[in-house]
Amino acid sequence: MIKQDYLLRMIQEIITLLINALLNRQKIRKESWVEYDDITRQILGVPSESLVDMSADEIIARYQDDPNQMGKTELAAVTLLKISDEMGDEQLVLKSRLKQDGLALLEYVQTKGDTFSIQRVALIAMLKG
Predict the structure, then answer these.
(1) At CA 80, angle to CA 117 and CA 127, rounded to 5?
(2) pTM of the model
């Protein structure tokens, strides 16, 4: 139980940091990104590079039976969005797909999850607007 609570807190802290960076259009320093990426890899069980190659449906299916399904799905979503945000326009197709998948995952968490997040609502509105 304690390990589960700690994991949930870690997921929420990373999500909050990434959502704040996205909402405020802040770039994340390379050193900080490496740290977030390492923690994200430990929590999600896959490196960010692998997330980029997965569809939203594959990500949902990956965590379907996990007790932290919604937290991990939301963490994957904001990770995809932050990767997309950091990309240049030379990768416009991939950048657009990552943004769409991230948005789809956030909407999935918003409709199927049992938690409410003002930050999530604001990010979804920003992405749709």
Answers:
(1) 55
(2) 0.89
The tokens for 107 are 């909407």
26 token code pair: 């802040």
Give the E-state strand segments of the chain in sequence order.
Answer: none
Whole-angstrom distance, CA of residue 74 vs CA of residue 101: 11
- d(Cα 69, Cα 83) in Å, to the nearest integer? 21
Residues 124 and 63: their CA atoms lie apart, in Å, by 21
Query: What type of residue sits at position 22?
Result: L
Q: Check pLDDT > 80 for residue 4.
A: no
At 74 the pLDDT is 96
Higher pLDDT: 129 or 44? It is 44
CA–CA gap between residue 68 and residue 4 (Å, rounded): 8
The two tokens of residue 39 are 């923690």
Residue of 78, 46, 84 lying closest to 62 (CA atoms)? 46
pLDDT average, residue stretch 72-90: 93
For residue 3, what pLDDT band results from cuts at 50, 70 and 90? low
The helix-helix angle for 30-44 and 69-86 (nearest 10°) equals 150
